[in-house]
Design brief:
With about 600 residues, the protein is an alpha/beta fold.
Length: about 600
């Protein structure tokens, strides 16, 4: 295993986050498109939130009335009745607070879960539509980190912190307003002091947000390492690199911890400063209130009301300081998610896509002077002035040394990339003018590395045509010589095959992949070393099945094992991204060129006798 390095995209983001001034919680505005569909529920949640805050603010008012009026009557009976009425009023306030708080909790929790699910779905759906160019510069583990960790942070904010913040904002403003109304001169002084608290808080807030973003990036780095190693665990263990990989992951985890520690330290300073400064300012106001009671300017109930309002205000500020930190963390997570959603694939559907003509007897394919460079290797041409025409129903094999450009032909034909120059045409229509779904519906592929999903054998084969019946699936499996081994599985076609098909052999996975392509029944079939993982007996069976499947359709075959392409109508010999020869097996051997050398090595014959 090679040591992972940050992807170019990740490096660019890191440089951007260092160079640009830190933004604030306005980054959360990226969530607005996901909130708008639920405006009615948001309005209902805000209503319950405000009513819960108002219920809290009514408590000190009721308490003031209890103290000033419930204890005024001199007759014990009248005092008892007055106290009973006022305590019932207090209970009514508490009951209202309980009902509105429960309703608020349900509504905001529902919104948090729903919006997060929509966001996660949107990001995932967007990522799976990206061209392979995206995955050349973005690690899978980083994407998974954003889909899990970042969306969980957003859920915490939308489903909890934001609600708490709004509720305490209403309570804090209400309590502060009542304090100003009841003690205008004193609270004016307190407000002046509180303004001085805000300025340092803004500085700390900027620092928390930058560190939150950096912390999420470090977590993504460790996730990327884990995803890479776990997908290659047999190689890691066969080379006895478990300890080294564990150490690499430990370094990444420690980097994430250290960044999180710095973020937590700065956030702790922020919380401590806000609470201490606010509490000190309000204690000054409370001291002034006690002096007013002693001087006879206000009543004891007024002072009691002031004390409760001070407690509500200080509690609100304390909660808001915590919420502010959560909002800053979520702002960084939202930025990362919005970056993914803002990514645009260079391969997109045509503005007004054309239709493909009906394909009878296979599709035609033409490469018209195509030149192509992979984005990660801009100076090296994978194909150079590549020109090839394939007739409907023809079987054409692509052979040549590794790096000759054979797989690139398939990549361009499926339009995973667009050519730098020249045109690729299917049935006479340039692939750039087709909808991607229309193009790929016409093509079936059996890749060299067979992909088996974590589901049943039946569903794996049906992946080629989701609406296929069970009988069609079984017929495709029989044609690919997969029926016997599938039937022998513990639950037959309903057997769970494990992650990446770990319960199957390489040859069995390949036959599942071949059955999937056969079920799709496309007019154009691409075989990329389709029999490479099969033993000699299985290869003979599958080769016979493939030859039957090739009838009536156009087939392009990539093969390193030349024995599998001897019956091809034409063999295209490639080297360095160019076509160096075309012909049948016998014609190419007779020319004593590159193909003859390859044939001599594989068949253990001299070039002149390889035919």
């Amino acid at each position: 295993m090679s040591v992972s390095v940050p992807s170019p995209a990740a490096a660019a983001r890191a440089q951007t986050s260092e160079a640009e001034p830190a933004k604030n919680v306005r980054s959360l505005s990226g969530l607005l498109p996901f909130i708008r569909p639920y405006k009615a529920r948001v309005a209902l949640a805000v209503f319950f939130l405000v009513m819960a805050a108002v219920s809290t603010l009514l408590f000190p008012v009721a308490l003031k009335v209890l103290i000033d009026q419930g204890l005024v009557a001199t007759d014990p009976g009248e005092r008892m009745m007055a106290l009973r009425e006022h305590f019932l009023a207090l209970f009514a306030v508490g009951a209202a607070l309980g009902v509105f708080s429960a309703a608020r909790f349900y509504m905001v929790s529902w919104l948090g879960e729903r919006i997060t699910a929509d966001l996660r779905n949107a990001v995932y759906a967007h990522v799976v539509r990206q061209s392979p160019e995206f995955f050349e510069t973005t690690q899978t583990g980083e994407v998974l980190s954003r889909l899990t960790t970042d969306t969980t942070l957003v859920q915490t904010v939308v489903g909890s912190s934001l609600s708490m913040g709004l509720r305490n904002t209403v309570m804090g403003i209400g309590a502060l307003g009542m304090l100003v109304v009841t003690n205008p001169w004193v609270m004016t002084q307190v407000l002046g002091i509180l303004v001085l608290v805000v300025l340092p808080s803004l500085y700390f807030g900027r620092r928390v947000r930058k560190l939150s973003r950096a912390s999420q990036d470090r977590v993504a780095d460790s996730s990327a390492i884990a995803a890479e190693v776990l997908n290659a665990i047999p190689v890691v263990q066969s080379y006895n690199q478990q300890q080294r990989e564990a150490a690499r992951f430990d370094v990444a985890t420690e980097n994430a911890f250290e960044t999180a520690r710095k973020r937590t330290a700065v956030r702790s300073y922020l919380v401590g400063f806000i609470i201490t400064a606010t509490f000190g300012a309000l204690l000054w106001g409370l001291y002034q209130g006690t002096q007013a009671v002693l001087a006879g300017r206000i009543s004891a109930g007024h002072l009691g009301q002031t004390v409760v309002f001070v407690i509500i205000f200080v509690s609100a500020v304390a909660v808001l300081s915590e919420v502010y930190g959560d909002l800053l963390r979520a702002a960084g997570a939202t930025e990362r998610l919005m970056e993914l959603l803002a990514t645009r694939s260079p391969v997109v559907d045509a503005g007004q896509p054309r239709a493909l003509p009906a394909a009878s007897g296979g599709s035609s394919v033409r490469f018209d002077e195509v030149t192509f460079h992979y984005p990660s290797r801009p100076k090296q041409a994978a194909l150079s002035n590549f020109a090839l025409a394939v007739r409907p129903g023809e079987t054409v094999a692509l052979v040549g040394p590794s790096g000759a450009g054979k797989s690139t032909v398939f990549q361009l034909l499926l339009r995973f990339y667009d050519s730098s120059s020249g045109e690729v045409l299917v049935d006479g229509v340039p692939v750039r003018e087709l909808a991607l779904q229309t193009l790929r519906q016409r093509v079936g592929i059996v890749p060299q590395d067979s992909t088996v999903f974590s589901t049943s054998a039946m569903d794996n084969i049906r992946y080629g045509r989701p609406d296929a019946s069970n009988e069609d699936v079984v017929a495709a499996a029989k044609a690919a010589f997969a029926h016997d081994f599938i039937s022998a599985l513990p639950e037959g076609y309903d057997t769970f095959l494990g992650e990446r098909g770990v319960r199957l052999s390489g040859g069995q996975r390949q036959r599942i992949s071949i059955a999937r392509a056969m079920l799709k029944n496309p007019p154009l079939l691409l075989l990329d070393e389709a029999t490479s993982a099969l033993d000699a007996e299985s290869e003979r069976m599958v080769q016979a099945a493939l030859e039957a499947a090739m009838k009536g359709r156009t087939t392009l075959v990539i093969a390193h094992r030349l024995a599998t392409v001897l019956s091809a109508d034409r063999i295209v010999v490639m080297d360095g991204g160019r076509i160096v020869d075309i012909g049948t097996h016998g014609e190419l051997v007779a020319r004593a060129g590159l193909y003859a050398k390859l044939a001599a090595m594989q068949f253990d014959l001299k070039p002149e006798t390889a035919a």
